[in-house]
Structures are given as C-alpha cells and as structure tokens.
Design goal:
By secondary structure, this protein is an alpha/beta fold. It is 46% helix and 18% strand.
C-alpha cells in the first residue's frame, strides 16, 4: 500500500477526504493530515510518504512547494479536490505513476529519479502531440511528474528539420527512437537564464525544442528568450553533426502565449 500525506487548510478538501472509506481498494493507506507546511515537515521527519496531496492557497502553498523542491524533488504531487470522485481519479493517476517509477530495476540501471525523468519527458512528448483534452489534466500531470516549468508563462518553441523528413532519422540512427531522444536530450537539454530547455521527437519524426520559464524564476523578455534559445540550438546542432552524423536545421522559431497551450497551437 502506498503512503500519502494530505496537506490542506481547506474544509471542502477535508470533507471529501473524510467521505472516502475505501483507501485500501485504491491502493493507499489512509493518509496522514497536516494543516500547513510546518506540520507537514514534522510528519515527514518521522514518516515516509510516496506522494503528497495538496489543497493550500497563497503563500502557504508556495512555502510547501519550495520545501518540496529542495527536500522532496522526486515525490509526486497531486491536488486534493473537494469531490470524492475526483480524489479517486487523482489517486488512480498517482498509483499508475508510482507503479512505473517503482518498477523492478533488476535488468536496468535506471533508478527512481531517472524513471520519473522518463515519465516527465513522455508527458511533454504527449503534450506536444496534443494528447491531452483539457487544461486540468495537463496541470495534474505536471504536478505528478514534478515539472518545474511554468504552465502559464510564454515559451519558445523551435522546430528542427532534417534534410529529408521521410525516414531520415531512422536511416541515420540504428538504435531506435527512444535511444535517439535520450541522445538528443543529452545534447539539447539545459537550464539557461531561468528557462528549462527540452527536446521531444514525435512519432512522425518531427523535432521540437521547447524553452519555458521555470516556476519562481524571472525569465528574459520575449526577444531575448528567442535569441538565447536560437543561439543555444545553433551551437548544439553543430555538435550533433560532429558527434552523431545527423544534420539538423532550424525550420521555425516562435513564442507561444502559454506553455500549457503548446500542443493545440502546434496541431
């Protein structure tokens, strides 16, 4: 059974929590409850948890998230809703993620942090491919995979092209698409000027570089963001050609109003 900590000052979230009487059927022990960050820290100093459910507002929420960023960077986070059915939905999504990142590593060198990172990259690939139907689910998934990218800030999206987009990558890379994306992430991934930069390769071989301000960071202005990301991409493209023999070019670069909308805008 997974262990969960509920941190909330919301009576509605507590009422919904108290209305659930089938925690074990959901795969969880009944959660411990804290009213604020200080109580949560005290509980966490004495008890292990697999995830944290949150219903806080204002400065107290920011305080808890700051604590989690430094003290619990890979602990999944879920919202604690005011409806029991939404509680069950959120717990189902959390259990699926925990099952993935706690998988048996006996035949692999991956650890829990690396598995969470893989889940995070899978999320952004699906987001770019417009696999999410609504904003609420996107926000839930970002909390689960502990993304530090700010969903409501403008982001830079840069499209990369190949000399021949009909099978070029498959013909120049023999180790499969998953290992190709890992290799590309090692080249392109970065944190620059308060922005997180990541790359995703979609199933149809479209390549996108996304740069988004991180939560709590002051990002550059629009034109400076574009300049930073383009300069970064141009330098990495040269390294990719030298070390991997793959030719890439910048096919387009634009600023999206919000990162959360990027899949719909690229569709």
């Amino acid at each position: 059974m997974y262990k969960l900590l509920l941190v909330t000052d919301s009576q509605e979230a507590l009422d919904a929590y108290n209305a659930i009487d089938c925690w074990e059927n959901l795969g969880f022990k009944k959660p411990r409850v804290a009213q604020d960050t200080l109580q949560a820290q005290d509980i966490l100093s004495r008890h292990h948890v697999d995830g944290i459910a949150v219903a806080l507002t204002g400065e107290e929420r920011k305080k808890l998230l700051r604590f989690m960023d430094t003290g619990l960077p890979i602990t999944p986070l879920v919202e604690a809703p005011a409806e029991p059915e939404k509680w069950k939905r959120n717990l189902g999504e959390l259990a699926l993620l925990l099952g993935r990142i706690r998988a048996d590593y006996s035949n692999d060198n991956a650890n829990e942090a690396e598995m969470l990172q893989m889940a995070r990259h899978d999320f952004f690939r699906h987001l770019l491919n417009d696999h999410y139907a609504d904003e609420e689910k996107i926000r839930r998934q970002m909390g689960l995979v502990r993304s530090r990218m700010d969903p409501d800030k403008p982001c830079v999206v840069l499209r990369l092209s190949t000399p021949d987009e009909d099978g070029y990558l498959r013909s120049h890379w023999k180790y499969g698409p998953d290992r190709l994306e890992v290799a590309m992430r090692n080249f392109f991934g970065a944190e620059l000027h308060g922005m997180r930069i990541l790359i995703s390769i979609l199933p149809d071989e479209r390549l996108y570089l996304v740069a988004c301000p991180m939560l709590g960071c002051e990002a550059p202005e629009r034109e400076e963001m574009l300049s930073i990301v383009r300069s970064h991409a141009e330098g990495v493209i040269r390294h990719v050609k030298d070390y991997m023999g793959i030719e890439l070019d910048i096919a387009g670069c634009q600023v999206m109003p919000r990162m959360i909308d990027v899949g719909k805008l690229l569709k």
